[in-house]
């Protein structure tokens, strides 16, 4: 009962107010029922040692804040003021820190806000270039690579020294920069440039620029660092790039037809397949990354924008932004097997470290929904700031 009672203390009034405002009485009541039911099934939750801490952070782009959620007790811990228009998050792999990308006001410089996760307090701000929108970290957690869409550049940030140490010019409107697992390639998606830039991180040198990807919107890279996949968000294709190794140079390997306006790619943890969220086709496409073939395309929901695969590689959870649903797709069966009713406008997802909870940022209703993955149902809704648009989980043990 411990988890359910802690969650109830700050949630019942929020759910009831949502119902009274016309959001959905049915969802509020079902969430309250889930809270009560969960109290009888507390053994489904991990047993944490006293020094264990885990938080999920939500970037609220409409209120210039970050909401902090206590995963152990399933409750809102606090809301922190950060920079203007926070849009992206990253958790350090080696330090108890979380980094918030603040896009900034129009024609103004953006920044990174540094949060101390042990105390959930802002401890630093690092000035960047105009309109930063994404962040990726190296394996040591010492360097950050930030795509500055308003400056057509990548900022290289020394996170220990808390300063930008280099700026790399790329294509027009870079919206994502992803570092390969081996640390030897930085893949940059240039949305307005309809291109992909491939950077040598050690030297900052541009190795290659590949065109022909309208609205390049992101990237996933295979664990062996041999290939990158980039969704072409204003078209209907995914670009496949073979990354340089040995004597082989970087090259365009394929352009694969998927649905219309693919916005996001989700890679299975075992690396077997990739799933494209095709926003204007209300579908997902399954990509076999070893053969560059499309398995099939499946109807999934209204305007899918983000998806995650469960740790056991069996289920794909899809946020359908023009709805109040997260769809569930069975990878083995090749079909949609259900949906979870959450808040309005689900747009980002994050699993807890143990995978027993799925957090959903509901952009329109200003909630974060908490889903119990064992039951595939809504557990509770927690208040957020305006327009929560990104989530990240950080788990650690105190000394």
Topology, element by element:
Blueprint: H1 2-9, H2 12-20, H3 25-39, E1 52-60, E2 65-70, E3 75-81, E4 86-91, E5 97-102, E6 109-116, E7 121-130, E8 132-137, E9 143-148, E10 153-158, E11 163-169, E12 174-179, E13 186-190, E14 195-200, E15 205-211, E16 220-221, E17 227-232, E18 237-242, E19 251-257, E20 262-267, E21 273-278, E22 283-288, E23 293-299, E24 304-309, E25 315-320, E26 325-330, E27 335-341, E28 346-351, E29 357-362, E30 367-372, E31 377-383, E32 388-397
Antiparallel strand pairs: 1-2, 1-32, 2-3, 4-5, 5-6, 6-7, 8-9, 9-10, 10-11, 12-13, 13-14, 14-15, 16-17, 17-18, 18-19, 20-21, 21-22, 22-23, 24-25, 25-26, 26-27, 28-29, 29-30, 30-31
Helix pairs in contact: 1-3, 2-3
Verbal overview:
- By secondary structure, the chain is mainly beta.
- 8% of the residues lie in helices and 52% in strands.
- It is built from three helices and 32 strands.
- A four-stranded antiparallel beta sheet has the order 3-2-1-32.
- A hairpin with a 4-residue loop joins strand 29 and strand 30.
- Helix 1 runs antiparallel to helix 3 and helix 2 packs antiparallel against helix 3.
- The chain starts with a helix and ends with a strand.
